[in-house]
Design a protein that fits this description.
259 residues, eight-stranded mixed beta sheet, Rossmann fold, 10 helices, alpha/beta, 8 strands
C-alpha cells in the first residue's frame, strides 16, 4: 500500500473521528460527509476505544499475556500495549497494519519498548502475519493468544472469508486463545449506506454486516458473556453512563475464546 495524502485512508479517517491530528484534507472530507449522515459516529468510535480497554483488560486478567492487534490503526490514548502492561507488566503485544502512516507513527511511539512490535502486513494474509520474524520474536505459539479485530473486519469483503481468516489465525494457537471483535452493522438502518458510498474512493471498501453475520465470524468459538451486544453494552464499567439508544454505538462487539 503506497502512501498518498490525496487518497483517503480508513485509519486516518478514524483518527479524525477521534479528534486526532494525523489526517489530511482528503480524510477530513470523507469524515465530514459521514458525520453529516451519522452524527453519532464520533461517539461510536470513542465507545470502540473504551471496548478495547475493557476487552484487553478482560483477556489479560484471564491469563492472556500475548496479544496480536490486527489493523491497529494510528496510535492514540490508551493503546493495547499500555492497557495490557498495566494489568501484567510482562504482557507482549504485536500490532499489525498496512498503512504507511500508521507504521511510521507506530514505530516512532514504540521505539525502545522491548515487549512490543509493529509489523506491516495485510489482515487478509494470516500465514504471512504468523511467519513474520518480529512476531515470532515475541509470540509463543504454545501459549494462548489474544487477537484483536476492532473496527476492521467491516473492511473485509465476503470474498476473503473473514471468519476463515480468524480461524486460520487461531489455529496456530492452543485452546484458551481469545478474539475480540467490534464491527459496523447494517442493523442501524439505511444511513450506514453513506459510509459505503463515501469510502468508495479509498483502498478500503465498507461491508457492514447484520448481527447474525457478525456472529458467524465467531463460528466454533465460545462467546464470553454477555455475548454479541451493542458496543456500549459489553461489560460496561460500573459507573458507565449508557446511552438511551445503544444502537448509536453503530457497532456490535464480542469476545470469544477457542475451546
Amino acid at each position: 500500500m503506497n502512501f498518498s495524502p490525496n487518497v483517503p485512508s480508513a485509519a486516518r479517517i478514524y483518527d479524525y473521528f477521534l479528534g486526532g491530528k494525523d489526517n489530511y484534507p482528503a480524510d477530513r472530507k470523507v469524515g465530514e460527509a459521514v458525520i453529516a449522515e451519522m452524527p453519532s459516529v464520533r461517539v461510536a468510535v470513542q465507545w470502540n476505544r473504551a471496548f478495547l480497554r475493557r476487552a484487553v483488560t478482560y483477556m489479560v486478567e484471564a491469563g492472556i499475556t500475548q496479544i496480536i492487534d490486527v489493523g491497529a490503526g494510528l496510535p492514540t490514548v490508551g493503546p493495547t500495549h499500555e492497557v495490557a502492561t498495566k494489568v501484567n507488566e510482562n504482557a507482549r503485544v504485536v500490532y499489525v497494519d498496512r498503512d504507511p502512516v500508521v507504521l511510521a507513527h507506530g514505530r516512532d511511539m514504540l521505539q525502545g519498548l522491548p515487549n512490543v512490535a509493529i509489523i506491516r502486513h495485510d489482515m487478509f494474509e494470516p500465514a504471512e502475519i504468523l511467519a513474520d520474524p518480529d512476531l515470532l520474536g515475541l509470540i509463543d505459539f504454545s501459549q494462548p493468544v489474544g487477537l484483536m479485530y476492532l473496527s476492521v473486519l467491516h473492511f473485509a469483503p465476503d470474498s476473503v472469508d473473514p471468519a476463515g481468516i480468524i480461524a486460520r489465525m487461531l489455529s496456530a494457537f492452543p485452546g484458551g486463545s481469545h478474539v475480540a471483535i467490534s464491527h459496523l452493522t447494517s442493523d442501524i438502518g439505511p444511513q450506514v449506506a453513506v459510509a459505503q458510498r463515501e469510502m468508495q474512493d479509498t483502498p478500503e471498501q465498507v461491508r457492514p454486516r447484520t448481527r447474525a453475520e457478525i456472529l458467524d465470524l465467531a463460528a466454533g468459538l465460545d462467546l464470553v458473556e454477555p455475548g454479541l451486544v451493542w458496543i456500549p453494552e459489553w461489560r460496561p464499567e460500573p459507573d458507565a453512563d449508557l446511552p438511551e439508544n445503544v444502537a448509536e454505538g453503530l457497532y456490535y462487539a464480542m469476545v470469544a475464546h477457542k475451546p
